[in-house]
C-alpha cells in the first residue's frame, strides 16, 4: 500500500523524454507526441527530450539507451508500435531493458480502456518498467488510450515512481 508519507516525499516535477515510434510521421505530424508532452507539462513535469524514431528494433533500442544514459531524464514515455501486427515491435525492442516490471500499469490502462472500447481492450499492449533507475512507460498511439495513460496514471504517479526507482 502506498502511504501518505511516501507520496508527500515524491517530487512534483519529473524530467521526461517522449519518444514517438513511427516510420512515417514527421515532427509536425506527430500530434500525439505533442499532446503527451503538453499533458505532462500541464501536470507540472518537464519535457527534456522529444523525438521520433523509426519503427525498427535497433532504432528503438538506440533511442532508449540514449535516454537511460542521459542524467537529466528520470522517466520516458514511448508511444506507438505497441499493437499486435508484425511491424509493432516497441515492446519486443525494449524488453531486455526491463529490470523491474510494473504490471499494474498495463492492467489499469486496459481496465480504463474497457469502458470505452469494450472487449477490444484485450489487444491493447502497454507496459511500464524500471531500467537503471528510470521509469519507462510504453503506450499505444491510440489517442484515447494515450490520454488515459498520461492523464489518469502517468502524470499523477510519476513523482513517486521516479523517486522510488532512483533509490
Describe the protein:
The protein is α/β, with parallel strands linked by helices and 167 residues long. It has one domain: Molybdenum Cofactor Biosythetic Enzyme, Chain A. 44% of the residues lie in helices and 20% in strands. It is built from 6 helices and 6 strands, in the order αβαβαβαβαββα. The chain has helices at 4-9, 31-42, 57-69, 90-94, 103-117, 143-165, and strands at 15-21, 46-53, 75-79, 100-101, 127-131, 134-139. Strands 2-1-3-6-5-4 form a 6-stranded mixed β-sheet, with helices on both faces. β1 (15-21), α2 and β2 (46-53) form a beta-alpha-beta unit. It is globular and about 40 Å long. The mean pLDDT is 94.
Give the SSE order as H and E letters.
HEHEHEHEHEEH
What level of helicity do the residues show?
Answer: 40-55%
Given helix and strand content, the structural type is alpha/beta
- Beta content comes to 15-25%
Tell me the CATH superfamily: MoaB/Mog-like domain
CATH level-two architecture: 3-Layer(aba) Sandwich
Query: Span from first to last CA?
Result: 18 Å
Unreliable stretches covering 5 or more consecutive residues:
none
- Domains counted in the coordinates: how many? 1
What's the story with the biggest beta sheet?
A: 6 strands, mixed
